[in-house]
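User: Could you check the structure of this?
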Amino acid sequence: SSDLFKTQNMNKHIIYIFIGLLGLTTACQQDIIIELPDPDPKLVVEGFLEEGSPAVVYLTRNMPYFDEVDLATFTNLSVSDAVVTVSDGVTEEILVAYTLSPLVSFYAGNSLIGEAGKNYSLKITHEGQTLTATTSIPHAVPIDSLVFKVMLPFDSMGYVWAYLTDPDTLGN
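Assistant: Sure, the predicted structure tokens are below.
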């Protein structure tokens, strides 16, 4: 009879705990509205310069994170009226603006081709603002060997491992 009494008390405690948790999760609900300030207008720069290829740069404007996104928003983000210059310290090239559509435009070079081991600078002038950046193209690390292992004996799919020796120069 004492085991029955303990079981009934334990069931009552579980019911009280459940009702308490239910009350906590439903009793205090309130919508919280946070007014975030609009960010300062800035240019967003994405570009690349690879060995054997000319420079390509995409320029867009930033936008508030929680703003509604529609076609008009995207149309106003692309920047195609900046002056974009790339230099290797000897040769300087002003990139040409290409507009594929009202949504997509980019800047591309054609005479300055990326070379490993060289340093490059980027200068963007737009609406009285000047942005600069520098980069270099590291020398490629050759692959020493490749190994292929079949996943299943009756299948042609598998795993490929590439092995290389990274030189122990400064920065590696």
